[in-house]
Amino acid sequence: MSYYQVGGFRAHSEAWSRNYDDASVIANIGAAPGPGHLRPDGAQGALELVFGVLPNGATNILLTKPQMIELTRNHGYRQPYHSPHTASSYLSLSPLSFDFPSRTALERKLEKYKQKSNKGKKAPADMIDNSPANKAYYYDGSDTTATPIGRARAFFEHNRVLYRTLMNSIDPASLSLPEYLPTKLSELRVISFAYNNWRVDARPRHERLGSPRLLDIGWAETEIKNFVSNKSCIDQVHCTIKENQTFKNASEPWTFLHGVTETMRLEDAGKKLKAILTRVASPKSQNEEFKDTKRHPVLLLVHDAEMAMAVLRHLGIDVLNSSGIDFFADNTRISDLLEFPAVSERYYDRKREYSPRRGPSVKKEEAVDYGYPDDRRDYRYASSASVKREDDRWRGGNRAGKDSRSATASSSSSYRERSTTFEAPPSDSGARGTQKVYVIDVRALHSTMMNAVGPDAGSIGRIAKDLDVAYDAPSERNGTVVTYRCCAGNEARLLLEFWVAMASGADIDTQNAERSVTLEYDPDDLPPAGPAPAHAPSFDPFDESVDPNDFEPAVAPGESGSGGGPHVVRAEDSDGWDEF
């Protein structure tokens, strides 16, 4: 699919405006009739454009080629003189919708892409996108080099695409995704996993990662459509760890609201969770028998992926080389699940310095810049041969897909009215195959969207407040306000709500603007300042005469401690469910 930029730096729409005044162009796009490519749901339906995230994190508002043709024919515009962009120019492409009437909202959005004067920069190469929306991402003057923030923003948008695919409310072809994607992802299992560690653990983070003092775990499995419509889950579990019952967090007990809490040994809890992750299929209800024999991919929602992986290891689930399970925990792998072409095309054309269709190639040594860690598993998958084989497996059973795609592009009917059932190719993992688990860090999604800062950044309370999700954990006991309660079973369900709230919303920048609030902190609620003790009191965890909860945590130099007030989460050093 080809894409044409509307508004902003060196936009294709400049060919349709006079003296760089694109007001009439915006008005014509906003007033597009329907049904058509611009407004597929009819005359009063939403205006559907495309939101593209460049490798450095900057964004463009785009028209697909069919939309551009529709616009030029309706208003007598000439075809843009610049070559169109391709999907491989972007790390992500996602839907951008404007409810009817659309003109005012579109004007507000494009206003942020207006350029300021490049006075003094006569050479075209010296000119950069200095619009309010994008200037912060051009600190290196490049939009072709992937940056951490670029990958993080694209990861957020991929989650929006994934959600809409699961809800069957997306036109895959408009985003350069395969037509069979809704059928493929209809087999996706969604599981959220939560945990609580002992908060009085004063060890450095790397030691806590190596051996977490785990108090409880919880998980919930659901089908997204059912969860959105009636908040139902297929399975909800809460387990407390028997070996660590002597460890207590200074918090109000929070009763598991969705079942009965079990107390299990660490090893048994790990086996039970592993059985859930590797289960061959999901029943439609708790009473339905399992009849499917295929291992469907799993979307695993967690809070703080690094610590979550450490907890899984502690439970006996080998996240690096587990027999039967292959975890994908870095934020680029979701594009593999979506089969977004910007990933695979880079590897097909390694030897080509430039391709008008696919853009610059990426050499093997540059792959890390696009978010692929230099490990055996990623390069095994990313090699052009293996990616090609996987693509062939899917496309082999759907040769008519190419013809249907071109027919779809020329049709003006609503994509929601088209048939979304395609002949499903053989699954790439059978009953004895490897279980693929794609890990989504919900805390990272929130942090990327909100640019979260402050003493409560990343906490459950902060995320719930920003996303307007009901969270009734604070309570009052004997006149003292308890600022958090812990139950991993309830928190697993919260993770589902958090993900749905973000993934179902508007693009990342619009959500940031709509959800941003100024948080005020009471100084009495913050930990006291002062020098930290050099060492924490030591104790023998096997000495039954010692209560480990009598020990206060030591605070490493330069870090905040809990003091006498509520525990305050550190964004870079959080175990998960701390409150402000």
TrEMBL record:
Q: Ranges of Basic and acidic residues compositional bias?
A: 390-405
What this protein is called in its record is: Gfd2/YDR514C-like C-terminal domain-containing protein
Q: Region (Disordered): which ranges?
A: 390-433, 520-580
Start-end of Acidic residues biased regions: 541-550
Query: In what residue span(s) does the Gfd2/YDR514C-like C-terminal domain sit?
Result: 231-334
Question: What's the short name of a Pfam family annotated to this entry?
Answer: DEDDh_C
